[in-house]
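Work Package 3 (structural annotation) set out to generate three-dimensional models for the target panel prioritized at the project kickoff. During this period the team completed the workflow that converts sequence records into discrete structure tokens, so that structures can be stored uniformly alongside our sequence database. As a representative example, we reproduce one entry of 311 residues exactly as it appears in the project archive.
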Amino acid sequence: MLFIFLTSCADTENEAEPIGGIGTPAGSVAYVQLSTPVDFIDPAYVQNESEITIAKMIFQGLVRESSTGEVVPCAAEKWDVSPDKKAYTFYLKKGIFFHDGKEVTAGDFKFSWERVLRLNAPSAYLFSSIEGAAEVLSGQQKQVTGINAVDNYTLKVTLTVPQDNFISSLTHPAAAVLDRYEVVEQAADFAKPGTLSQPGKIPSGIGPFELVEWVDGRIIAIGKNNNYFGAKPALSRVEFSLNQPTEDAVLQVVSGKIDIIQDLVPSETPKLPEQAGAIELFQEPVRQFRYVGINAGLKPFTDKTVRDALC
């Protein structure tokens, strides 16, 4: 993944490292151009890079992925794994609050995960190995027998089979905790965008930023969560521009109207002016794979020699 951002305005004596690792003056505002449209910020439905980026800043779960790609504790202080690797017991940190002020409990996690399954959301597969998940997915049951809130700060999860990547899969936004009372109250309006004339309802997460504004097709703005339980972000506000062509965005970076471009196309880099220290490229690895599938039932791919020639 390739980013571009301006550094010439940075006050090096007061720099702090915000979430994401890009050095930024504390209390400043960042203007970001996203690479893909944002249709959802509801953790159950986010899929593309832009949606996941924003969701991870607002919502968090038991664990998270560090800047070096390691899985580290987040809302969970620690966890135990049974000898057969099918039972996980998570111990939540006490004193974690949603953006709306309610304290997070194990019951909120149970509700949030079961919601993903009840909705048969795109990321429901993350919980498919949990005991009782299949029955909820099929509509036979409303609660997952393998997800149990032992008390307010203890969550026990039982799998049908061992799954080596279970903990790492919980870094996906779909495993984030939601305020169950807020989700029920907002119903179909939960985490939906507003319009210029009708603001949307603000969903509460536990992340370092909270949603401030979302006008469909125009802007998403998030603000610093001053009560965040982890390291406080340096930025006070981030504004994301939506559906903006990359070429125009490059020009706006040069003019200083945009600070960061997400997923800059490599062919666009030659258009950047050679201003030493003014524009910086930043790269980070991403966990994804892509492939090209061949329909062996269509000519000429019915011919094995043709398929072999393409491989």
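Residues 63-183 form a domain with the Dipeptide-binding Protein; domain 1 fold (CATH 3.90.76.10).
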